[in-house]
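Structure in, sequence out. Go:
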């Protein structure tokens, strides 16, 4: 990471939590609000979902149906997968952020910026390409909504991971890209890079892979959604350094504009009684804190008087 990106935390300091929490809350609020605004109409969203599925079938990369049948027919897989889909997205990512802030402060700002940028890019994807997940396609498509089938075991209803009665507050057409996968990939990359134990690195590999299987097995995302979520995280990573440099320049400009040196108007910085002095030099007869000249100052003044008298003679 370049110097501009590392300068804010070069001394190992961490951002203040009372500034970080509102910033993260603002980004998440924009993410949630954008999902609601960019709902799209049912016909367009369903059409986009069917198009994605056709492309996958053409490319022979369509494992969603097989996984969905397995999760639906096996409650021991389907129910834990539903809980994972409904909760881990909102628990693991904040936990990794807090861990970074506490244990790796020198890297926190960079990695937080990466996550925020990728999230905002994902929001643009939801806006431009509203997409119905597999569970909302026609029944002839061969998908079953596992979360609706096993809803009696959890807090969610028939509206994906939304709590019962709150389905109208979510955008069910925000399938492309999959930020479930994107955020899990971010968590995995952070834990792999900055974790120190073998268990942490094993979790770094397992967590994103499990989330990919979960989002497809529960019929909430296509494989191409998962790949798009990976691409979004890659783009966010590429934009992180430029964003940090821009933020550093903005902070630097603000600091320069708010400070004016004592000699900005052309006045010497250290002037007393019309005589400019060098650093640490004391003017003859300059009073001390008690109002009396020092011995050295008095001797210097006396010698100067003697020289002046000799020159006059």
């Amino acid at each position: 990471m370049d110097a501009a990106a590392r300068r804010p935390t070069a001394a190992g300091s961490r951002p203040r939590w009372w500034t970080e929490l509102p910033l993260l809350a603002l980004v998440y609020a924009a993410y949630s609000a954008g999902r609601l605004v960019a709902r799209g109409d049912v016909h367009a969203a369903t059409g986009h979902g069917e198009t994605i599925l056709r492309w996958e079938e053409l490319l022979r990369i369509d494992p969603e149906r097989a996984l969905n049948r397995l999760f639906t027919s096996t409650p021991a897989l389907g129910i834990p997968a539903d809980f994972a889909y409904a909760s881990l997205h909102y628990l693991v990512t904040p936990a990794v952020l807090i861990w970074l802030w506490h244990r790796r402060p020198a890297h926190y700002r960079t990695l937080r910026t990466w996550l925020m940028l990728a999230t905002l890019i994902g929001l643009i994807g939801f806006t431009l390409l509203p997409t119905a997940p597999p569970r909302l396609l026609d029944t002839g498509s061969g998908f079953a909504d596992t979360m609706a089938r096993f809803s009696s075991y959890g807090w969610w209803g028939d509206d994906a991971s939304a709590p019962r009665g709150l389905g109208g507050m979510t955008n069910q057409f925000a399938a492309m890209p999959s930020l479930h996968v994107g955020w899990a990939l971010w968590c995995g990359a952070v834990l792999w890079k900055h974790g120190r134990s073998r268990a942490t690195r094993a979790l770094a590999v397992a967590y994103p892979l499990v989330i990919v299987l979960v989002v497809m097995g529960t019929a909430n995302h296509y494989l191409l959604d998962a790949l798009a979520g990976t691409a979004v995280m890659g783009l966010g990573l590429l934009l992180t350094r430029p964003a940090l440099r821009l933020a550093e320049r903005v902070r630097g400009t603000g600091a320069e504009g708010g400070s004016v040196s004592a000699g900005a108007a052309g006045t010497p910085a250290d002037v007393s009684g019309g005589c400019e002095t060098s650093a640490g030099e004391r003017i003859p007869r300059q009073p001390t804190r008690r109002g009396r000249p020092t011995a050295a100052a008095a001797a210097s003044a006396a010698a100067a008087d003697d020289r002046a008298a000799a020159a006059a003679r």
